[in-house]
Design a protein that fits this description.
single chain, 356 residues, alpha+beta, Rossmann fold, OB fold (Dihydrolipoamide Acetyltransferase, E2P), 2 domains, 6-stranded mixed beta sheet, globular
Length: 356
Amino acid sequence: MPLNFACRHRYPSGFDLDVAFDVDRRFTALFGPSGSGKTSILSMIAGFLRPNAGTIRLSERTLADTAADVWLPPEQRRVGIVCQDSLLFPHLTVEGNLRYGLRHRRRPRRAIEFSRVAEVLEIGPLLRRSARSLSGGERQRVALGRALLSSPEILLMDEPLASLDTPLRVKILAYLERVVAEWNLPTLYVTHAQAEVRRAAEWVVIIDKGRLVATGPPDEALSQPEPLAWAGSAAPINLLKLDSIESEAAHLTARLGEQRLFLPPGVGPASSPAFVQFSPKDVILSRQDVAGLSARNHLRGRVCKITVAGQARFVAIDVGQILWAELTLEAVDELDLQPGREVTCLIKAHSLSVVG
């Protein structure tokens, strides 16, 4: 279901937002640093903030057109919303919160059944509990279920995992992926976390200072110099999907296409799918494979891009998936790195973090 957004808005503070983008993917991330305008865009789509000028269209429906004086109120837009604060009704039970979503359906394109939502989100055992008694992760699952039961045409998520710790964030993201796949529900997901974008998004729209920076598949869009230079995001995040995890003698290994990856000691069983995460600083490049090193992982690949960000050079290597290495300019020159060059990526096992 295509979303067409083209709006301008100036706040009294002087912040000026002027962004236009089209998306037609099942899971799109709206990515950028704090204060870039991401939440403002979601508020306009939801109908909570009226722009000074612009249009918003969802499939064949016009949600907003300032030139034609069209402005659908929020309750007529058929959007589901999940925020960082789950905004559950504290005086209601979990079931009461979920059924609130049922009461606010408007001519649904398709009915989403209560029992199936409870099953997919694994919240059946919570139905009789008070919303006040829930943990952070449970609250977000219930908020997601309530949004689903309104049978929305698009799901808007405003940094729903920001207040959760990393293990819980990974777990809730897996639930969200399950929801998107189960109901084929178009989702616009706001975040400033690269790992979430690289793991879940099919498409990313990058915003900075109220302007569009880049748009496209995550690996391509996130490799632009502007995102890489952001404070607090000075490097891309390596997040590789593992084909399988196997036990070999005293070690755990994973398959990465036709290549093998040694995992750090103490890794327990991972859920499916499982990913391995590590920093580009932990990758050493060599033009030839080298024996006798403590780095057990030797992944062969081909350089596909070199991006400049300040004094650093970020080298993208295709090892079946895109892997990033951070080098100095001198190292790039000495190795004579250029697109198409074959290299070996050396990575110590203890640098890897397995997330499921």
